[in-house]
Prior knowledge:
By secondary structure, this protein is an alpha/beta fold. 35% of the residues lie in helices and 19% in strands. It is built from 52 helices and 62 strands. The chain has a 15-stranded mixed beta sheet that branches. An 8-stranded parallel beta sheet has the order 45-44-46-43-47-48-42-49, sandwiched between helices. Strands 36-37-40-39-38-41 form a 6-stranded antiparallel barrel. Helix 44 (1359-1369) runs antiparallel to helix 49 (1517-1524). The protein is flat. The two termini are 65 Å apart.
Amino acid sequence: MNELELKYYKALYEKRKNWTKTLLDYEARGVWVTIIDKYTDPVHFIYELLQNADDANATKVFIRLEKDGFVFRHNGSTHFTISDPDKAEEDDKRGKYGHLNSLTGIGSSTKPSDVEKNKIGKFGIGFKSVFKYTDHPHIYDDIICFALYDYVVPELLTTDHPLRNLGETLFYLPFDKANFSKKQAYSEIEEKLKTLDNPILFLRNIQEIKWESTTSKGGTYSKELLKSQKYKDFVCEYIKLHNFSIEDTKELWMFTRNIQLDEGKFPISVGLYIKDGKIDTTTRPKIFCFFPTRETLDLCFVMHAPFALIDNREAIKETEALNDKLFDELAILSADALLALRDIGIKEKNVYVDESIFQIVPLSSKYVYDARDKWYNKFYNHFKELLSCADIHKAQDGSYVYAKHAIKIDNTLRKLLSESQVSDLLYLSNYRYYSLMDTPKQTYNYVYLNLALRRSENLLSYFNQIGLQSFYLDDFVNKFSSKFIQKQTDEWLEKFYHFLTTSNGQKLLIEGEEYDEDHLSLRNKPILRDNTGEFVAPYNGNEVMIFTPDEGEVDGIKYVDKGLLSNPDFIKVLELLGISTPDIHDIIENSIFPKYKGNYDVKWVDYDKDFKTIFKAYKSSRNDYFAQQVRDNFPFRSIDNYLVKWKRLHKDTPILKDLLTDSDTIYVLDSTYYEKLIPQNQLKILREFLDTLAFETILSVVKIDGNYKDVLSDEDIKSCEGVLETLRGVTKRGCEVWDYYLANAIVIDYQLESFEDIISNGKINKEFSILYWNSYKRIVSDSSFKWSRYKSWECSYAPYNDRRYSRRCIKKDSSFITQAQSLEWLYDREGNVHAANDIYIEDLAPEYELNDEMISFLGLQYSPQSQDYQFIADNCSEAAKDAYEFGKWAQNFGINIKDKKALDRLAKLLKEEEKKEQEAALEEERRKKKEEEKAKLDKLRKDNQELDAILHKQNKYSTDELFNEAPQNLPTRNSSKQQSNVLTEEQLAELQQQEETRQNLEEIAKDESKRYTYEWFNALLELEFRKSGEANKSKSGLHIIFSKVEKDPHSERGVLLRNPSRYIPRSIEECTNITVVFYLPNDIHPSISFEVASVQDYVLRLKCKNEDIEAVDNLLAVAHQVYRAELKTNTPIKLIERLQAAYTELGYEDDFSMLENLNPTTKFVFGPPGTGKTTYLVKKWINKIATHPTGKMLVLCPTNKAADVITQRALEKINPAAHPETWIYRFVQTAEDALENHVCLRDSSIYKQDKCCVISTIARFAYDGFEGAKLKDIDWDVIVIDEASMIPLAEIVYPLYKCENAQVVIAGDPFQIEPIVAEELWKEENIYKMIRLDNFQHPHTVPCDFDIVNLDTQYRAVPAIGRLYSEYAYDGAINSYRKQDSQRPLKLKGFNPKSVNFVMFPVNRTSIYEPHVVVNSNVHIYSALFAYEFIKYLASNIETQQDEKPWRIGVISPYRAQAEIINKLWEQRTELYSHVDVQIGTVHGFQGDECDIIVAVYNPPARGMKRNAGNVFVNKKNILNVAISRAQDYLFLLMPDGDYEDYNNLETKTIGVIAKKDTTEMTVTNSQVLEKVIHGDSHYLDKNTFVTVHQLANVYSDPSSKYEVRFDEKSVDIQIK
């Protein structure tokens, strides 16, 4: 050093020394931690040293790794400089800033522009990463040798390093870092040296890097230029890269172009790796800026440019215009590079550019979430333009053609089809072949799709965009036709049949349906030539259409051309297809059955021959399937010599034969005819055959043409231009009633066959009447037979002035009903004939078998005058007896049972009387219970008094007797308990039996082979029943104590109960009579009954009955005096027991799979947070009811709150013109005053309306309903299940099987909260896990691919928050509707929040920072206190803003104990906030909710993180997803800081990594910084909190600190000063 340099050094030394006084202060040390931890790769400093060496013009680098340190040496010609520290800014601007100044600075820049920053590598903040491994780095140079102390202070060294040569620069890093082992440092650095990512690929000067270590020979990185040439305005270089550390060599073509930027011209490069002479399309290199960043665009190009990077040089700045320009230039260069490779390949006679180009270029653009998507799309656009407009497509003859002149043909077809044949198939000309890759199963490895190289929608779409025609195997099958194959020669047929024997051809024969999503296969194409020269398809569906020749050929059977049977390939094809000689069943299906289709004219002799063939086939098979085929396709001879199809033919019973003589519409089988055709020894088999065919023995319903004038009024007819035939009637789900439009009205009617003819012609007799009775009875009594479809005429029509698709339905009773009720056909006991409305039940002839269905169907009644009760008792059902008794009673009181109004009034009076009796009985029961309790209390007091008297007598008992064992006959306070602990042998046996049963149930539940079977569900329901406490008969109900009462601001009849003594179960929402006793001073204990409950964590929302409004108002007037509110339910809530009973009614076999038998028509709506799932259900499904004349829909929700929300949304969103208020109902109860008028009670009959939508909680489905029908028994057309992830699996599966005919729609999100259940064995089970729906972008389900609608736009959160949970849980597939500028402004004193804010808090094993377990839940005292102080800070700042709209703040903790501490701290505050509403609870309480601000407190668990971090509750993905997705505008995540010993095991770290991708809307701070902002002291809570454990005795005086905390495993007490 010269004199001036020495002067500068001393000044610099003093300046840096002064810095350390501030920088080493405790509160500033975080600066160094932040700088050192900037790099996700701790060994990144090697790249920093290499770039600096390159800038120093070094050509060689030597690295030695020793046990105690790291040596880095280079031969650069530029040496260390030092400049005047007092002129730092001036020197920096002039580019004269010294190396030593830069090295000891903090983030100072020697780089005048963004471009220069990435071109010149003078020492700056990047060098600071060496402090990860050393505290005192040494630098040796010709000019100066020094070591750094305290990060920035340069201390001169007096000796040189022995490994440095003159002219070289050497860096030595001794491994002297405290708390970091030398062994770990050595290991990490050695591993990095072995695998540096092409370190010299883009350096300008360094040609070789050698390294060695004390444990290995090391290696060398070098590059070798093999050839170079200029192409247009850029250079093409073929480079070989060597890494001798791992014996790896790579070759690549590199393309470099100089581009003009504002600062001058700079080189950019793109390269493609070459493997075995071809482009390696499998690599996805990182993007380079001299060295690799952590960025990638998922392209196979390696690329380099002088990007503007973030300060740690690992990522590219997203908002820099420079980077946009660079990526545009790189995209252009990449497209040009492919053209260059095309020409280089032609010149070298080596094909670089071929069909693999479609594995190089992206096939679709990306939705722009961030800058990377925008940069990616630049490449997509330029490549698409290249492939559209350039002759870059390699043809079969080796030339390159334009896309519009090419056909891309599957390689498997090139040898089979000539150009003219392809043209014939495609009807094209002037196209040239363009071949596919030879490996059809190879896939593209892009992250956004996974394409098989065969036909795919993305590939076809891309071909279409660039104008390229494609022709795949699928296209060949699709285009294949009889016309095409008829033109082909025998030589080509031989080639074709040979192709079908290859592996690809066999797929089209054997695996055709699996191979193609459209089920295309050559099995159903005309590929086989028959004996007439025509080409025939082997199959029509599953029916064989052609056979190989047999000895005797049968007319009507097609046989293959005998001339082809000499070809072994053709024989192989026949074997693959399963084509053989026809057996008797083939002859019947192909020769006999076709004769009898449509109008047939067959001679009896031919018919007899056909029947004998069929009978012969039956004798050989004797199966029901064949009998069914015969029933469907073959006619039989009737007694009156007609051939009649099976469905119109009756068995030849005597009564039917008699009826035949009097009716023209009855056909009866002539069994004697067939007995004459069959040998006598086979008559038994014949009768068996005829019995198997099961001809009807009763009459059936027939369709007849009706008259539309009987249905439509004159006015209707005038306005009607046509009606719709409704032969099929109401469809399966009853939502639509039309099939197609006709010009004239056609109405279909139904009646019982021959019924009207016989009666109108006076031919009715008693035998016929009984036959008709039995026929009607079977039809109306069969539950599987929907006789109601015959109950009405149905026709739909469009008014003349309204051609819309929606039409209304007009119904009238059909002849099936009217004839049965009005015609005279019923015989009395005297032999007289009556109509149904003219005869009483007791007068009917005894031959009629009565049942309730026939009585109801015919409208039969008992005679009021009849006194013959014995007749009723002997002949009728219980319902009939009740009807009889009621008729007699009504007659005695002069009541007309046909007067509906009178009956309604009577029913009302009876209900009121019954209610009074029940209330009186209940009151008497209460009185007796109080007396019993009083007697028990008196006895207990007496016992205690006796005990106290005995204990106070001196010397009565010894000390041992008093304190160790109760004396004999001494009444002790716990004597009853001791006595109860002595079990009898019977009780022990019962307990042992219960334990064995439990173990058996658990074995079933754990058996994977039984998972989701009927037995598995029943076993787990029983375990749940036992675990939940419902099985404990001693529990008579629910008992919870609350310490705070408030008015519900949303309801005039509402009360809020806060601070519960225990967890509030959601099952309380199903109660309709909840009694609460409120305790006030002076022994005032008012009791109020409530009819509706809604739960949200620590708050119970209750709604009183109308008659108790005054009592509630009086209570709320003195609510501040209530010191205790005690809730009791009189009876236990037996929801599980009711669900068990419902499952038992299903009656399936134990091995019945509840998974495999799910209805494949079930639809799923996948609705991530904020995507408007409820609105979608209303508009898509509930709105369907609005637009149709009929339909019944049931909506099931997990909670009352969810049911109220969807009810309100439906009433708001449905068009008022559809009058939703007349058909949308909230079942039984609601907590919302606005929905009072829409509640339907159990005595309602709204379910009988033609149109209704009933909304209820799903728990009620199994047991609740209307007086006339339970919810589970109503024939619903559509069932919608909302928030499905929260619903226990058994509750959601039950309606799927109970209402199998309904269209079921299940809406929810697999990645949100799972159901709350007591039994551990199915805690994580829900409908989504059952069907394996666990992927948003590419959903796949079992046992079939259900119809899934993905909602992919979220409307709740600002983009920064939406992007966070989109990438965390949904593969980044959710779009944000809101713009960032829609965010509500939040002004906080001393802190500038962003959308996503990480607040790190300390966790260790001392004082308030230590995690603890309290009642099996985790608490962390410091984070709870800080969260409380931070909420107050937010609330007070918001209060000063005076916004018109109040702010909602949600505070969420995964752990109940932690949430309860924060909640109770907040409840005791003295401050009042009018503009802030704060809700505190667990994640479960916030499901479906949203807040302007969310504060998520992630306190760590006290144990389990090291052993089983994946199963720790706070790490569960769905818990974290729900928490972060509740925020609309601001998200604050309170989480342990990096010093926490298990920090790397926290899932919240993953969220942080995602958030860091967008640093513009993310902040990271620590709680102690905010403590200083809030209180002026960064250790305020530590200094003002005293923590101790509970003692045996605790006496509290005024707290000495602001917070005094006492805790043990059972509770936490906090005193506040």
